[in-house]
Recover the amino acids of this structure.
């Protein structure tokens, strides 16, 4: 039987290894935002931003106006941030093992309802 839920680990993995085959944009957004919540509950360093102009992510991917991306503030000066597209963010948070951090809000993704849920 097809799995009806995915763990954060699976959602993050699918987020950067597949081209939307297993992961919707909504699921990718959930996975990245949930990983941020687990990593930085007060959003002091990590946050998701909607691009107001075109950017390039740290790996050179184009972030279009209106796209979501992750900003990492590495010092306190305004405008000094690292930008990661959502796919690179999924990879980053996967290898940071954020899925092993305490659950902040949701634990899984419901692939039928296409929304996050608390338990498997
Ligand atoms: Zn990227």
């Amino acid at each position: 039987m097809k799995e009806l839920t995915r763990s954060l680990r699976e959602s993050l993995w699918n987020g950067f290894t597949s081209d939307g085959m297993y992961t919707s944009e909504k699921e990718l957004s959930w996975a990245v935002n949930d990983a941020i919540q687990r990593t930085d509950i007060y959003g002091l360093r990590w946050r998701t931003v909607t691009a107001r102009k075109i950017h390039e992510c740290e790996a050179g991917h184009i972030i279009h106006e209106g796209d979501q991306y992750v900003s990492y503030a590495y010092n306190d000066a305004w405008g000094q941030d690292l930008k990661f597209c959502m796919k690179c963010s999924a990879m980053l948070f996967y290898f940071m093992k954020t899925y092993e951090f305490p659950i902040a809000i949701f634990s899984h993704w419901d692939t039928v309802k296409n929304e996050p849920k608390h338990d498997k």
